[in-house]
Specification:
Elements (H helix, E strand, L loop, with lengths): L9 H8 L3 H10 L6 H11 L3 H11 L8 H7 L5 H13 L6 H7 L5 H13 L7 H7 L4 H14 L5 H6 L6 H13 L6 H7 L5 H14 L5 H7 L5 H13 L6 H7 L5 H14 L4 H8 L5 H15 L53
Helix pairs in contact: 3-4, 3-20, 4-6, 5-6, 6-8, 7-8, 8-10, 9-10, 10-12, 12-13, 12-14, 13-14, 14-16, 15-16, 16-18, 17-18, 18-20, 19-20
Length: 366
């Protein structure tokens, strides 16, 4: 697994880190980003110029209570890395800011198909529903990258008109497309896909097993606890930790102490894995332990802890599902309606209550 690198302004981070937990929580609630250490660390991550880190931070902000500075995300829309550009454009799209339409039109000319698809998503979210046709077409594309991206974006769109076409993707030959379709269906309020996710926890590909194991905690039931108990014995740490986190999401907290204890490990990779999975659990007692890592001299540890804290704080349900599209409209501007996907019959209405968005964690976007 690649290490995470980040250049954070140490003095600012450490000075902010000297606050007590109560002061930090009060600052977070007041919306003062300068006083919120995890938020400040992730904003610096976006500025740091490390592609993997910037994309991961942007994905975390998709489920955060407060978006990063909009002008910073606009800069990332022109980053050299395709994953960063795609995620930044998708993050901008979920704000539904109509004044971003020119940026989306410009990114619709990007040299890379996934970025163009995210731009079409942005235009659809800001008042041009005809652009949603691109997502429907991409879902049927022979290009597996486009199918994966389209399934993810259709989940972000929050429109039940996409349920029918996503159901068809549960038979896709690509396992990641199947998992993304199942995740999107769950976000849209549909129940399909659980059997496919269960099956893919036994897939021969390690990364597919990880993704499916992680997703099972969000979609599964208590009947899945024995399966997850077996997966918690995996020799792969990420699968093992994902199984423990999924068990916690389903109400079985017997092993969550293991993840907490591993935050004291001297191994950076273990720190990152344990932090990431604790972020999945919405287990608020983990915040105090994670906050200690914000003072680490290792930027990788600080970043993973910051992401986990933001995701735990943002949890409204056992599966994080906050959406930035519910942010207050600009003064004098009415929010754009959720676009209907062309070729469907269901009216374009939000599929889920406000404050919901699917998690887009680094490992779920191969």
């Amino acid at each position: 697994m690649n290490g995470w690198l980040i250049a954070v302004a140490a003095a600012a981070a450490l000075a902010a880190g000297c606050q007590g937990a109560g002061a930090r929580q009060a600052a977070s609630a007041s919306g003062d980003p300068a006083a919120d250490v995890p938020y400040a660390i992730l904003v610096e991550t976006l500025r740091a110029g490390q592609p993997a880190l910037a994309a991961s931070a942007a994905e975390t902000f998709l489920e955060a209570d407060r978006p990063p500075p909009i002008e910073l995300v606009e800069l990332l829309a022109d980053a050299g890395d395709v994953r960063v550009r795609t995620t930044a454009v998708a993050l901008l799209a979920t704000t539904r800011r109509s004044e971003l339409a020119p940026l989306f039109r410009r990114k619709a000319q990007d040299a890379t198909p996934p970025v163009r698809l995210a731009a079409a998503f942005g235009l659809a979210m800001t008042g041009d529903p005809s652009q949603a046709t691109a997502l429907r077409d991409a879902l049927a594309s022979p290009d597996v990258t486009l199918r994966r991206t389209a399934a993810w974006l259709l989940g972000l769109m929050g429109n039940p008109s996409a349920i029918g076409m996503l159901r068809l993707k549960l038979d896709d030959p690509d396992a990641v497309v199947v998992l993304r379709a199942a995740e999107a269906l769950h976000h849209l309020g549909a129940k399909e896909g659980l059997d496919e996710v269960r099956s893919l926890t036994e897939n021969d590909l390690h990364q597919v097993r990880y993704y499916a194991t992680r997703l099972l905690g969000r979609l599964g039931t208590t009947a899945d606890i024995p399966r997850l108990e077996r997966l918690a014995q995996s020799r792969y740490l990420d699968v093992k930790f994902a199984a423990i986190a999924s068990l916690a999401q389903l109400g079985d907290l017997k092993r969550i102490g293991m993840l907490l204890d591993l935050l004291d490990s001297g191994d950076t990779e273990v720190h990152v894995l344990a932090s990431r999975q604790l972020g999945d659990t919405a287990y608020t007692p983990a915040i105090e332990r994670l906050e200690k890592l914000l003072k680490s001299r290792d930027p990788t540890v600080r970043t993973s802890a910051a992401e986990a804290i933001i995701r735990i704080r943002s949890a409204q349900t056992p599966w994080r599902s906050r959406i930035l599209a519910d942010q207050p409209a600009l003064p004098g501007a009415a929010p754009a309606p959720t676009p209907m996907v062309p070729g469907t019959r269901i009216p374009a209405t939000p599929a889920v209550p406000p404050r919901r968005t699917p998690p887009a964690a680094r490992e779920t976007r191969p």
